[in-house]
């Protein structure tokens, strides 16, 4: 591998990580609010929850498109293997996202909103569970022979992936509740804070199970985590995650508004960095390295031109969007009427 190819591969790995973080955090609180809407007793609270998302939900999901496009263009072999191995949870996720988007828009104009509220919540839950199965299936390993997927259609469905799916769902619930703390006030904010505590506790429990299970199930991970020469490096992400968790608990106890979302994001960021470091240089764990999966230099360099225009534009748009629609939502605020 020449120096230029090595450099371009790592630039695109950095982009891939950035797009994954942006999607997980931004659409994570979006999906979390959808899941929480299933437990809202009054349609008035669902109106407030929907209003908090009305100006941002579609832009949040755009990062998933960029993530998929990046994987397809920069690492086509990984794209092929992952889509074949995880076809069922991925296609379920896509249909769930479409389903919730339709429900979101229809609810705004329907006379009987309860049915569309239920559809939006179930679509959010199905999308979150599917993403958990994708993550669990990817960590669990994909059978590759030569340059092709050689496993079965349900290899991703294991006890380990089920535990991972629970962790993703509870993590999204935490993000959604933290966002509602920021966007609501009064009784609605108090309820969001209680839900944040619940999501926080359940997510940490699921994370503990997965963190202990991972080195026990995968010896090569244990060797990497606990090797004398690298143990101090791999200890950094979990320590940062625990610090963020402690600060999150402190922020919730002090009834702070912005800090819970910040520290929740920190937990996710530390977890994703630790996960990426654990499997590097593999892009499909134990099967396909980033070097094996990468496109040629000309393709990687040409894509840089498009990304150089697209990503800054999207980031500026997202920032401006959140800036314009900052502030609280309350009773009487709705989306899509007029």
Description:
With 338 residues, the chain is an all-alpha fold. It contains 14 helices and four strands. It has helices spanning 3-37, 43-53, 57-74, 76-85, 87-109, 113-140, 159-183, 186-217, 219-226, 231-234, 236-253, 259-279, 290-293, 297-324; strands at 144-145, 148-149, 282-284, 288-289. Helix 7 (159-183) packs antiparallel against helix 8 (186-217) and helix 8 packs across helix 9. The model has no long low-confidence stretch (mean pLDDT 90).
Radius of gyration: 20 Å
Morphology: globular
Q: With helices defined by DSSP (H or I, 4 residues minimum), what is the helix count?
A: 14
Low-confidence stretches: none
**Alpha carbon gap, first and last residue:** 58 Å
Oligomer: single chain
Strand content: under 5%
Number of domains: 1
User: What class do helices, strands and sheet pairing give?
Assistant: mainly alpha
Strands, count: 4
Q: Which labels suit this protein?
A:
two-stranded antiparallel ribbon; two-stranded antiparallel sheet; mainly alpha; 14 helices; 4 strands; 3% strand; 338 residues
């Amino acid at each position: 591998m020449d120096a230029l190819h090595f450099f371009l591969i790592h630039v695109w790995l950095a982009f891939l990580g950035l797009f994954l973080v942006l999607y997980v955090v931004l659409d994570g609180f979006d999906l979390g609010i959808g899941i929480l809407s299933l437990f809202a007793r009054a349609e008035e609270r669902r109106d407030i929850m929907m209003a908090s998302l009305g100006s941002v939900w579609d832009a949040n999901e755009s990062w998933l498109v960029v993530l998929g496009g990046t994987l397809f263009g920069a690492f086509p072999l990984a794209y092929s293997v992952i889509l074949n191995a995880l076809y069922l949870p991925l296609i379920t996720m896509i249909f769930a996202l479409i389903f919730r988007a339709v429900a979101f828009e229809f609810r705004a104009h329907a006379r009987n909103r309860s049915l569309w509220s239920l559809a939006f919540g179930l679509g959010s839950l199905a999308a979150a569970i599917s993403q958990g199965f994708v993550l669990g299936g990817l960590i669990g390993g994909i059978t590759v022979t030569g340059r092709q997927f050689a496993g079965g259609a349900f290899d991703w469905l294991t006890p380990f992936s089920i535990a991972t799916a629970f962790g993703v769902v509870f993590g999204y619930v935490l993000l959604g509740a933290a966002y509602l703390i920021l966007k609501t006030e009064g009784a609605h904010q108090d309820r969001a804070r209680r839900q944040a505590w619940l999501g926080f506790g359940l997510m940490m429990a699921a994370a503990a199970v997965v963190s202990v299970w991972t080195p026990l199930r995968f010896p090569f991970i244990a060797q990497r985590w606990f090797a004398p020469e690298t143990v101090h490096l791999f200890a950094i992400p979990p320590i940062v995650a625990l610090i963020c968790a402690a600060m999150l608990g402190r922020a919730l106890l002090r009834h702070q508004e912005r800090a819970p979302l910040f520290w929740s994001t920190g937990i996710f960021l530390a977890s994703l960095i630790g996960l990426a470091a654990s499997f590097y240089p593999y892009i499909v764990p134990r099967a396909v390295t980033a070097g094996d999966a990468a496109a040629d230099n000309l393709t990687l360099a040409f894509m840089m031109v498009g990304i150089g225009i697209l990503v800054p534009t999207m980031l500026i748009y997202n920032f401006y969007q959140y800036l314009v629609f900052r502030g609280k939502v309350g009773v009487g605020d709705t989306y899509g009427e007029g």
